[in-house]
Amino acid sequence: MTSTHRPIRRAAVVGSGVMGAAIAAHLANAGMSVLLLDIVPDRLTPEEERRGLTLADPAVRSRLARDAVQRLATARPAPLYDPSFANRITTGNLADDLAALADADWIVEAVVERLDAKRAVLAQIDGVRRDDAIVSTNTSGLSVAALAEGRSETFRRHFLASHFSIRRVI
Which stretches make up the 3-hydroxyacyl-CoA dehydrogenase NAD binding domain (predicted)? Predict the structure, then answer.
């Protein structure tokens, strides 16, 4: 029997909420290079307005993922073993950086727990991922079969659920 074992060196997390950012931190703790993507914001913050930025500005377009990484520094318990590990996380957005998912060995979907939203993101991922890339969903209750419905054969063969659990001290 031939082993198909391949090391996972580059990961991507789609969804930079509390869970997605913590997953990115855990992967960075394990020594991986991580791409963290989220949607493009649909409105400016008051600070962005004061600075004269627009929704087309790259700093605005990737704000959600960038701010999520910045919040890792103050989260308790600290999700990063060493604060410098934040440098292993690159941020972006789904509109501009989707094609970069092709470089990932493992792609973790961590968007809102709604079947329609997850399926839409998984369809985007299926369109750009490498055929051998692992894709996992961080769902706690949705059907994996329903999430994989309509996806390519190689996607379905490399698709699984991986539920991460995080703790926060408030």
Answer: 11-164
Where exactly are the structural domains of the chain? 10-161
Of 8, 11, 31, 10, the C-alpha closest to 20 is: 11
Peptide bond into 46 cis (omega under 30): no
Q: What is the pLDDT along the chain (170 residues), one digit of tens a residue?
A: 555 678 899 999 999 999 999 999 999 999 999 999 999 999 999 999 999 999 999 999 999 999 999 999 998 888 999 999 999 999 999 999 999 999 999 999 999 999 999 999 999 999 999 999 999 999 888 999 999 999 999 999 999 999 887 665 44
Beta bridge partners of 161: 137
Q: CA 89 to CA 155: how far, in whole Å?
A: 25
Radius of gyration of the chain (CA): 16
Residues 28-62, buried b or exposed e (16+ Cβ, 10 A)? beeebbbbbbbbebeebeeebeeeebeeeeeebbb
Considering the segment(s) 10-161 as one domain, its CATH architecture is: 3-Layer(aba) Sandwich (3.40)
**pTM > 0.90: yes or no:** yes
